[in-house]
């Protein structure tokens, strides 16, 4: 995760070295006087120098291309190796699950679940929900996405809330407990938020339900477990709230964002046209309210930069990810990918 943030952050030249790349090498240029003869045309020495310069330039381009291909291939292979290491027992457990994810493609919380499933190589089907009618989830009294249906043998379980989905599935993969039992560890609870609206919260949603040996094997110590929980919650409670004020910052940016949302989402023709223009206008004004509610700076980009700097400082220089050599559940938060796609 720190790699992605550092790659997209200002000052990329120095960061390129940490990503395994190399900054472009500037070739010195020669004076025109050194390449011309007495009559203004190229002399013998100039011709030799010119030919040598061309040969040197071609060699530099070839070397640069080879280095670029090498580092691209190395980064691609490294990315493939960053998938979670699953034991034979965990692979057996994952093969028992038939997963169906109900989502909005552009929703950061849905993206979080997809990142977890992809990282752990868990196969799943996707149902894109129509944001207006939501007919695809009419079976559920819980009306938000993501919703994950997990079929394990004859048992069909519905998991709600992105953090609960991730914590429950990770607990399942590590402990092997029946998913039906695991879900009971994350009971829903009605609460009233700061705006006086009744909402559903889930207890223990950042906690993996592991015994002492399992926790030690996964984390190596209490500090790592506490750190992962802290930053998972931080991404949900703070970082995700920086996205809307940034992507809907101006009317033009709001319209461009909804153009993408409509193209990627499950909208009818009329619904899409209405959503693009009415949704962009609505979210532009809502983003201003969110900016005020969360007490963001006039330039909301500055809050985003500060959040990224805070994350990078927490990861530090001695490990590539919050989880060490491989990403942990805090690293997998897609809020970073949504936020870092901004200019």
Automatic annotation (TrEMBL):
SUPFAM superfamilies: GST C-terminal domain-like (SSF47616), Thioredoxin-like (SSF52833). Its EC number is 5.3.99.3. It comes from Tursiops truncatus. Belongs to the GST superfamily. This is Prostaglandin E synthase 2. GO terms for biological process: prostaglandin biosynthetic process. It is found in: Endomembrane system. Residues 101-169 form the GST N-terminal domain. It holds the Pfam family GST_N_3. It catalyses: prostaglandin H2 = (12S)-hydroxy-(5Z,8E,10E)-heptadecatrienoate + malonaldehyde; prostaglandin H2 = prostaglandin E2. It comes from the Eukaryota. Keywords: Fatty acid biosynthesis, Fatty acid metabolism, Isomerase, Lipid biosynthesis, Lipid metabolism, Membrane, Prostaglandin biosynthesis, Prostaglandin metabolism, Transmembrane, Transmembrane helix. It is a single-pass membrane protein. GO terms for molecular function: prostaglandin-E synthase activity. Its main location: membrane. GO terms for cellular component: endomembrane system; mitochondrion. It is an enzyme of class 5 (isomerase). InterPro entries: Glutathione-S-Trfase_C_sf, Glutathione_S-Trfase, Glutathione_S-Trfase_N, PGES2, PGES2_C, Thioredoxin-like_sf.
């Amino acid at each position: 995760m720190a790699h992605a943030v550092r790659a997209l952050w200002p000052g990329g030249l120095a960061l390129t070295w940490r990503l395994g790349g190399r900054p472009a090498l500037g070739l010195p240029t020669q004076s025109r006087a050194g390449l011309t003869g007495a009559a203004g045309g190229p002399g013998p020495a100039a011709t030799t120098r010119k030919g040598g310069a061309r040969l040197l330039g071609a060699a530099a381009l070839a070397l640069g291309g080879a280095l670029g291909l090498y580092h691209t291939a190395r980064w691609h292979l490294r990315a493939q190796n960053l998938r979670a290491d699953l034991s034979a027992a965990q692979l057996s457990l994952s093969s028992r699950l038939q997963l169906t994810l109900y989502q909005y493609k552009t929703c950061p919380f849905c993206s979080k679940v997809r990142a977890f499933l992809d990282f752990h190589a868990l196969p799943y089907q996707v149902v894109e929900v129509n944001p207006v009618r939501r007919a695809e989830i009419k079976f559920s009294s819980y009306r938000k996405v993501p919703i994950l249906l997990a079929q394990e043998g004859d048992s069909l379980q519905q998991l709600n809330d992105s953090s609960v989905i991730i914590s429950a599935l990770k607990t399942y993969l590590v402990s092997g407990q029946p998913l039906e039992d695991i879900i009971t560890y994350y009971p829903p609870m009605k609460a009233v938020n700061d705006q006086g609206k009744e909402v559903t919260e889930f207890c223990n949603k950042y906690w993996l339900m592991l015994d002492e040996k399992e926790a030690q094997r996964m984390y190596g110590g209490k500090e790592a477990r506490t750190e992962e929980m802290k930053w998972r919650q931080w991404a949900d409670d703070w970082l995700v709230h920086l996205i809307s004020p940034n992507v809907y910052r101006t009317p033009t940016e709001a319209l461009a964002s909804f153009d993408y949302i409509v193209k990627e989402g499950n909208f009818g023709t009329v619904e899409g046209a209405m959503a693009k223009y009415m949704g962009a206008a609505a979210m532009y004004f809502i983003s201003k309210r969110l900016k005020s509610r969360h007490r963001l700076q006039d330039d909301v980009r500055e809050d985003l930069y500060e959040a990224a700097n805070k994350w990078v400082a927490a990861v530090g220089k001695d490990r590539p990810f919050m989880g060490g050599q491989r990403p942990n559940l805090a690293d997998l938060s897609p809020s970073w990918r949504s936020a870092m796609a901004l200019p």
